[in-house]
Prior knowledge:
Elements: E1 4-6, H1 10-19, E2 24-30, E3 33-38, E4 42-47, E5 52-56, H2 57-64, E6 74-75, E7 82-89, E8 94-100, E9 104-110, E10 115-118
Amino acid sequence: MMWERRETNTHQDHVIAHVIGASVLRYFVWDETAYLLLDIGFIWNIYLDAEMGLLPETVALAELDLDEGLRRWERVAEPSPIQSVDLFQSEDGRRLVVNCEATILTLETSFTTRDIHVS
């Protein structure tokens, strides 16, 4: 798949500015959205089209109204502060690269399968 760099929009820039310096502790994917739990008590949600939002953890989880069994939190292997975020696109999806001090977290989306893969 060919990925081309894409500029982030004003809203994405605003959200990214708030997550810089925070660490992703855990994440889960549900209903075409990735939910990333940050060490600052917020959840960063990222949709298939790479649009995003940021809500306090309690508010985000209350809005989801999922029982614990459906929220299968995956641990991030080596949480460390986010330094930058890069966005790429292809015909079939988006790739968000979260560059952290000690590691890189990548979210790839597919419009065809409606999936989000976090690695």
